[in-house]
Amino acid sequence: MDPIQQLTSGLDTIWVVLTAAMILLMEGGFALLEAGFVRQKNAVSIIMKVFVDISFGALIFYFFGFALMYGKDIGGFIGSSGFFMGGDLSHIALTISHDTYWLFQCAFVIAVISIVSGAVAERINFRAYILYTIAMTGLIYPIAGHWVWSVGGWLGKLGMVDFAGSAVIHGLGGFSALAAAMIIGPRIGKFSADGKANIVPPSNLPLASVGAFILWFGWFGFNSGSTLSATNTSIGHIAVTTMLSAAAGCAACILFTMMRYRKADPPMVINGALAGLVGITAGCAFVSDAAAICIGAICGIAMVYATEMLEARQIDDPVGAFPVHGISGSIGTLAVGLCAKPDAIREGTAGLFYGGGFHLLGVQALGLVTVCAWGFFITWVFLKLIKLIVPLRVSRDEELIGLDVGSHGVPAYSQEEGFLDLQHLKNNQ
Q: Is residue 318 within 8 Å of residue 200, measured between CB atoms?
């Protein structure tokens, strides 16, 4: 390797490792966001699920998930090499090592399962969640990812474009979350006998806000890091479109909820920013600044309607996982087929609005439907199978007491006085 190539490889390695670390930090964001949105008695259970995501997710993806996703292609559907990061991976031709590439992709797979975590918060059995995490990180996500991102994947060969995962990560995760929420059922008391949704107040909105800001920060690693190159000239543009879309989603929610509810709704505004981030993930490298603003605003407003739709159908999604990730991920994926600038993806391609015709849009729609349907139905199947092994849901008593004490034996916030000897203090006054 000549000095220039060696320097490039070193810079790219540093870039990818740092952005992977930013994405992993998003797990702290998920933890704070979800803990703030749920009731106080279930905050520890959220944290424990995040630790399951990181630990089991990383191990399973190392053992066989990466191989199924990025191994040597079999028929465009599944990989066959790379188990335990061994075997033939020569088809992955990058300036970074395979270990570095695995780390970045590992950060992605952990994010996918964390999407589902929020939709089943406050009532899923911890053992069932561990089993589902293994299924998602080892099979459901890797196979869908192979179709789009691997060398030889059938959707990728058709021309589907999903730069950082609006469909593969967020669409898949969102529709998997929808299936999980439908199977496990709503929280006790969420819906009254007449079907009306009851408000479950968040336990700590400042905590949820900090979580959203951490996610926003990590998203720059999510999108810009997907260049896999520190010298890629599109990094700045990717960061700008990411910022603008998030800001537009947030601003749109502020204004829209003020008109719709006569008050700016804080949980909706938080999710509006996240919806904008999800929406721009597929096309951040390929659309203009103006298109990014439009995508973010549309995703923010669509998220509000999707949240209302779920409640009208008595589907309980405590943190809005499906509206934020499933709906916004779908919009962002299709937006590539509409708004991709000429030759931004590859020479001779453009979105419908730039005279590129319907081909790209059609491929995007096919890929979106395929990936989301896969996530929904395979999640449904796996949860039904898991139910044969362990209960999917905690007992009624555990749910009423709270999962922190019922499942983990410790509350998130103790009211005790610690180790102070109060009587001794009084005697010495």
A: yes
pLDDT value at residue 418: 58
pTM over 0.85: yes
pLDDT tens, 263-299? 999 999 999 999 999 999 999 999 999 999 999 999 9
- Tokens 């600038």, residue located: 341
Tokens 């990466």 sit at which residue? 66
**d(C-alpha 378, C-alpha 179), whole Å:** 9
Query: Would you state the pLDDT for residue 413?
Result: 84
The one-letter amino acid at 74: I
> What burial letters (b/e) apply to 103-116, b meaning 16+ CB within 10 Å?
bbbbbbbbbbbbbb
Q: Closest Cα partner for 410 from 401, 400, 419?
A: 401
Look at residue 96 in the predicted model and tell me its pLDDT: 97
DSSP characters over 205-264: HHHHHHHHHHHHHHHHHHHHGGG--TT-TTHHHHHHHHHHHHHHHHHHHHHHHHHHHSS-
Phi, psi torsion values for 16, nearest 5 degrees = -70, -40
Query: Token digits for 235?
Result: 């990094």
How is residue 426 written in tokens? 């009084």
Distance CA 315, CA 427 (A): 57
Q: What is the structure's pLDDT at 414?
A: 74
79's enclosing H/E stretch is strand 78-79
How far apart CA 117 and CA 344 sit, in angstroms, is 35
How far lies 344's CA from each of 161, 235, 336, 356, in Å?
11, 13, 11, 12
Q: Could you count the other beta carbons within 10 Å of the beta carbon of residue 414?
A: 8
Please tell me the distance from the alpha carbon of residue 255 to that of residue 269, in angstroms, as a whole number: 9
Low-confidence stretches of the chain (pLDDT beneath 70): 415-429
